[in-house]
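Support request from a user on the community tier.

User writes: "When I paste my structure tokens into the form, the page sometimes reloads and wipes my input. The last time it worked, I copied everything first. Here is what I submitted, just in case something in the input itself triggers the reload:"
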């Protein structure tokens, strides 16, 4: 299917703890369609972050297939994997991971500069994206000079500036108060619609999860439809 952005089959991941194997993912199957927003919920330690890392190619699975835009990521070189990851995926974390010594504008322009876009174009696009997240008046502020909500909005701008096919967000609003969390979430949804990106959001917040088109729960190492989970 052409409009599947990320898919995985029989995905497993186990960690070694000395001689002991710790199985975390035990056969995850998933198809994420272009433009779709999926929320993944699950108890603490159920493997949600592990799943996002493996799907995003930040960590290797123990077994199973992952396809990003139709490409099986185990069958391409590390360089191709990096290119696919940088070109097609955007990551948003609970902690913003902005570079403290750079301004908001420089932080958001960074992924474009890494792709060798001309400076002027990179900064213009970064400024446009910061405008969309309501930070036009904070371009020259470093992360330390921004509020928590502003930092997270800058991180959303940075993840979306490359117009990725898919955004992987791990508790993107976990550090924010309820009102700011809703604002950041609204923004993610709005930008998601604008660039028709797919979105996987891991969240503990069921109110936010309920706004996704689909919610799945990670239980005992597999993804279940929420209606199957009870
Ligand atoms: N590098 C590692 N080595 C060994 N065990 C690990 C490693 N990384 C994660 N784990 C284990 O895998 C399990 C799943 O961790 P993960 O962070 O994916 O859970 P989570 O569902 O995201 O949890 P939370 O909601 O608390 O953030 C945990 O039991 C954790 O201890």
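"...and here is what came back when it finally went through:"
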């Amino acid at each position: 299917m052409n409009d599947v952005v990320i898919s995985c089959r029989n995905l497993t991941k186990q960690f070694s703890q000395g001689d002991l194997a710790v199985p975390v993912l035990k056969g995850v199957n998933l198809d994420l369609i272009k433009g779709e927003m999926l929320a993944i919920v699950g108890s603490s330690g159920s493997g949600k972050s592990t799943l996002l890392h493996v799907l995003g190619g930040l960590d290797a699975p123990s077994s199973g297939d992952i396809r990003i835009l139709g490409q099986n990521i185990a069958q391409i070189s590390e360089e191709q994997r990096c290119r696919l990851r940088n070109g097609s995926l955007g990551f948003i974390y609970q902690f913003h991971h902005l570079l403290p010594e750079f301004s908001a504008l420089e932080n958001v322009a960074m992924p474009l500069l890494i792709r060798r876009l001309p400076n002027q174009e990179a900064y213009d696009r970064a400024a446009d994206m910061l405008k969309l997240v309501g930070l036009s008046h904070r371009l020259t502020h470093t992360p330390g000079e921004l509020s928590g909500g502003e930092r997270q909005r800058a991180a959303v701008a940075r993840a979306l500036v490359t117009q990725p096919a898919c955004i992987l967000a791990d508790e993107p609003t976990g550090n924010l108060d309820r009102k700011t969390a809703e604002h950041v979430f609204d923004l993610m949804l709005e930008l998601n619609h604008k660039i028709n990106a797919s979105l996987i959001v891991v969240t503990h917040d069921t109110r936010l999860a309920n706004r996704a088109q689909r919610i799945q729960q990670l239980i005992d190492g597999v993804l279940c439809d929420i209606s199957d989970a009870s």
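Agent notes: The reload is a front-end session timeout and is unrelated to the input. The longest helix spans residues 178-195. The chain has a mean pLDDT of 90. Escalated to web team.
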